[in-house]
Design a protein that fits this description.
There is one protein chain. 45% of the residues are buried. The chain has a 15-stranded mixed beta sheet, with helices on both faces. A two-stranded parallel sheet has the order 7-14. By secondary structure, it is of the alpha/beta class. The protein is built from 19 helices and 19 strands. The protein has helices at residues 2-34, 38-50, 52-63, 66-69, 73-89, 91-98, 109-117, 134-146, 163-177, 195-204, 220-225, 273-287, 327-338, 354-365, 381-397, 430-435, 446-460, 468-472, 476-487; strands at 124-132, 151-156, 181-186, 208-211, 231-235, 239-243, 260-262, 264-270, 312-319, 342-346, 350-351, 369-375, 400-404, 407-409, 413-416, 420-424, 428-429, 438-444, 463-466. Helices cover 48% and strands 20% of the residues.
């Protein structure tokens, strides 16, 4: 009996080892075949060989090109169907947009043309309001929500069970009781604080609320990594909000008892609200039990705005695992390479890919005044260390880097040549370029750019400039920490 058991155990052991070996070999094959970046290829091979079980998990969670494998095939089909409906709905507007004089775009016509023709992002005129911090955004947003007549659409990465979160919940419950249709999308990872009770309270009065991705064991690795980082509100198809401010007390300095929180949001009244609506409905039709169509209940004609005080030409650019290109990355790259005079950037996380790093370096070396604001004290040591690693290359190329010390700066903005502005949800990091659902507003307006540039200068009052010589004096231990963080930057 003992001999048989030993024999059986040996067979089982060899079987497990054989299956395990096949998995490792197959994973190595996929890495070599499907990873176009040489540095990433070497990294994934190394980590799989050095730490097989962990390495295999990390690769399938973060390294697989899900655009290529179309793991989101259902979402892609929904996107395409909705895009076809919108193309039909706005066929005439598409033609008229292509005839907008090139001078309306300054030196950035190729950016607008690319987003219109490849990403199918409509152009439209708007009335815009820059909203600095939650204490400015939330009163304005709540006032608009209270005036809603037909529907409210909300999509947020973070919704916490605090003062702000409950104020929003109470407004939505009140509007639902008035007959306003309310649809809410939230990210299951970022909105863990929303709690079952808040969701149940809203569902009890007819509010439809869904997480963007239902996390299941089979899809855990990939889906948990693709987070819905957007912060979008659409009210009656007429008013929209986009930016960096989440539904959390920490973003409102009236309630935040910790450090000062600096952020930027944008209120849109005009045709570009249709773009926000488009991308909300695409996600809604994917995650909810309802399938909305593109009609004039949700999408407003361009001529509605003719009598309004509308002038700021705006596009929306989005990103996510289900889009054929990384449009967020493409848009940033184009702006950075087209800028001729000034390029002012604010981001809480700076973990760029090689193309963005190269674009910023060549801009500075070419005489463009490139300035970057990042937090003095990061909210994550690992992320902060990775950021510090990449700053050395900018400093060496002549980019002026500033560390914001008043509190934590969470704004995601760009202003180029006092003409093009970007306000949105995307950080200058690999996660925003490739993994997350993101949304940015791109504004072609000298007036808006001057206002955003003024805000940038105001933020500089609370910054310490980092010099290249100062960075070089960093201890060897710290530099080693920065290098290790850089190696892990693909996962941050």
């Amino acid at each position: 009996m003992e001999i048989i058991l030993a024999y059986d155990f040996g067979v089982l052991e060899y079987t497990v080892y054989g299956v395990y070996s096949i998995i490792v070999i197959y994973t190595l094959y996929k890495i070599v075949s499907d990873t176009y970046d040489t540095t990433k290829t070497i990294f994934y091979i190394t980590i799989v060989l050095a730490f097989p079980m962990v390495g295999i998990y990390i690769y399938y969670a973060l390294g697989v090109n899900y655009r290529k494998y179309r793991i989101y095939s259902k979402k892609i089909k929904i996107n395409n169907n909705l895009q076809t409906q919108i193309n039909s709905l706005y066929a005439e507007q598409m033609k008229s947009m292509e005839s907008i004089p090139k001078e309306m775009f300054g030196d950035f016509y190729s950016l607008a043309y690319f987003l219109l023709n490849d990403a199918k992002e409509l152009l439209g005129y708007n009335k815009l309001n820059l909203l600095n911090n939650g204490e400015v955004k939330f009163p304005r947003l709540f006032n608009d929500l209270k005036k809603a007549k037909k529907y409210i659409h909300i999509e947020y990465y973070m919704w916490e069970n605090g003062i702000i979160g409950n104020q929003l919940k109470d407004i939505l419950i009140s509007k639902s009781k008035e007959g306003v249709k309310i649809r809410v999308i939230y990210d299951a990872f970022g909105s863990q604080g929303i709690g079952g009770k808040m969701v149940e309270d809203m569902q009890a009065v007819g509010i439809k609320i869904f997480p963007i991705l239902q996390v299941k064991l089979v899809a855990f690795a990939s889906r948990m990594n693709h987070r819905d980082h957007r912060k979008i509100v659409v009210i009656d198809g007429l008013i929209g909000y986009i930016g960096g401010v989440n539904i959390s007390d920490r973003y409102d300095n009236r309630y935040n008892n910790g450090e000062y929180w600096r952020d930027t949001h944008l209120r849109i009244e005009g045709f570009t609200v249709n773009n926000l609506q488009h991308h909300f409905i695409a996600n809604w039709n994917y995650c909810s039990d309802e399938k909305l169509v593109a009609n004039h209940e949700f999408f407003v004609y361009d001529n509605y705005w003719n009598s309004k005080n509308i002038r700021d030409l705006t596009q929306i650019v989005v990103g996510g695992p289900d889009y054929k290109r990384s449009y967020i990355l493409y848009a940033f790259f184009k702006i950075f390479t087209l800028a001729k005079k000034r390029l002012f950037i604010t981001t809480p996380y700076f973990i760029p890919d090689e193309s963005v790093l190269l674009a910023l370096k060549q801009a500075a070396l070419g005489g463009v005044d490139v300035r970057l604001i990042v937090p003095y004290v990061p909210d994550s040591r690992l992320v902060g260390s990775a950021t510090r690693y990449y700053l050395q290359f900018l400093l060496n190329a002549g980019v002026r880097v500033y560390l914001y010390y008043k509190g934590f700066i969470h704004s995601k903005t760009v202003v180029a040549d006092q003409f093009v502005s970007v306000i949105g949800t995307a950080n200058l990091d690999i996660r925003s370029f490739s993994l997350n659902y993101e949304a940015n507003a791109i504004v072609y307006s000298k007036e808006v750019a001057i206002k955003l540039e003024g805000t940038f200068y105001e933020d500089l009052r609370y910054c310490k400039e980092l010099e290249y010589n100062e960075w070089m004096k960093t201890s060897r231990i710290k530099k080693f920490e920065y290098n290790i963080a850089r190696l892990l930057s693909s996962f941050l």
